[in-house]
Specification:
mainly alpha; 4 helices; about 0% strand
Length: about 110
C-alpha cells in the first residue's frame, strides 16, 4: 500500500511539474500579453491542483489533506478571476489592442 501511495503521489507531482514547464515555454513562445495570460491561467491552475493532489498522498493526517483540498478550491476559484481582471485591464488601457488581437465588446 505504501508503494502505491508513493508511486501515485510522485506521478501527480511529476505531472504538475511537467505542466509548469510547458507553461513556462508557452510564456516565452507567445508574443502578446493576452496569450501569455491565457497560458498562465490554464496551466498554472492545473499544475497547482496536480501537485496538491500528489501531496495529499504523502500527507500524514486528515487535517493536512483537508487543508490541501482548501488550497485546490481556492486556486480553482481565484486564479481565473485574477487572470480575467488582468486581461480586462490590458484591453481597457492598451490603445493598439485592435492591431494586436481581435477584441469584441471593448468598454
Amino acid at each position: 500500500m505504501e508503494l502505491f501511495k508513493f508511486i501515485t503521489g510522485t506521478t501527480f507531482i511529476g505531472l504538475g511539474l511537467f505542466i509548469f514547464g510547458v507553461a513556462t515555454l508557452g510564456l516565452f513562445k507567445f508574443h502578446y500579453v493576452l496569450n501569455r495570460v491565457h497560458v498562465a491561467a490554464k496551466c498554472d491552475s492545473l499544475a497547482i491542483m496536480l501537485v496538491c493532489i500528489g501531496l495529499m498522498f504523502f500527507a500524514g493526517s486528515i487535517g493536512t489533506i483537508l487543508k490541501l483540498a482548501l488550497v485546490i478550491i481556492f486556486v480553482w476559484l481565484v486564479n481565473p478571476v485574477a487572470n480575467h481582471m488582468v486581461c480586462k485591464i490590458e484591453v481597457e488601457t492598451n490603445e493598439n489592442i485592435e492591431e494586436e488581437c481581435e477584441v469584441e465588446g471593448r468598454l
